[in-house]
Every structure is written in structure tokens, then in C-alpha cells.
Design goal:
Layout lengths: L2 H9 L3 H4 L3 E9 L3 E4 L1 H17 L1 E12 L2 E12 L2 E14 L5 E10 L2
Parallel strand pairs: 1-6
Antiparallel strand pairs: 1-2, 3-4, 4-5, 5-6
Length: about 120
């Protein structure tokens, strides 16, 4: 996978696809919420998020992607439905940094939930 494909997969909740591309010392910062340090911690959080995604109907939309050098930015939205009712809408921007071996070394996620 290219770094852009890895970023898209993560931003769209396709976490298991990107596990082989995680650096052992990766840091995932969810701004104003939490931080996960190390490959195991990131994988565990991804699994928990996946459980939620599997409990609802999800609709992801990528608005734009910027790739430059070893960095990728993905901007988009996510809608979550249960019983045909929208339970959540999130505007998000994920920033990805890759090392010289194209391993994902840092993720910074900005998530704004509609009130």
C-alpha cells in the first residue's frame, strides 16, 4: 500500500489493513481527548473503535487528501446511524507522518462532533 492508501484506510475505519504498516513506537494523538503510544496501544484502540463501528451503520466521506513527502492529511466526515436514525456526525482531519521505511509513525486526529 502507498502512504496515501494507508491514510485513507485508517481514516475510513479499515484499521486491520494498516496494522502491518504501524511503526513499533507510533503515537496516535486524538486532540483534546487521548493519546496512544506504541503499536500495541494503537491496535487495541483501533479494535475498540471497530467494535463501535460494527454496532452502527457508518458513512464515511473523504472531502480531500493532501500528500506531500512523508506526510498525508485526510479531511472528511463520518455519520453514524442506528435504527435508521443518525446518532452522530463528525467532521475530522487526520494527519499522518511516515518514517523513511513508509511505516506510520504518528497520527494526529482532530474530530469535531456536531452538537
Amino acid at each position: 500500500m502507498t502512504i496515501t492508501e494507508i491514510a485513507h484506510a485508517f481514516s475510513n475505519g479499515e484499521f486491520e489493513k494498516i496494522f502491518p504498516y504501524l511503526d513499533d513506537s507510533i503515537i496516535w494523538t486524538v486532540v483534546e481527548d487521548d493519546e496512544f503510544k506504541g503499536k500495541e496501544a494503537v491496535i487495541e484502540q483501533c479494535k475498540q473503535v471497530s467494535q463501535y463501528f460494527n454496532a452502527v451503520t457508518t458513512r464515511f466521506e473523504t472531502l480531500y487528501t493532501i500528500t506531500e513527502g512523508n506526510k498525508v492529511a485526510v479531511n472528511g466526515t463520518a455519520e453514524f446511524y442506528r435504527d435508521n436514525k443518525r446518532v452522530s456526525f463528525v467532521s475530522a482531519c487526520d494527519l499522518y507522518e511516515f518514517d523513511e521505511n513508509n511505516k506510520l509513525s504518528r497520527i494526529t486526529s482532530y474530530c469535531i462532533q456536531k452538537k
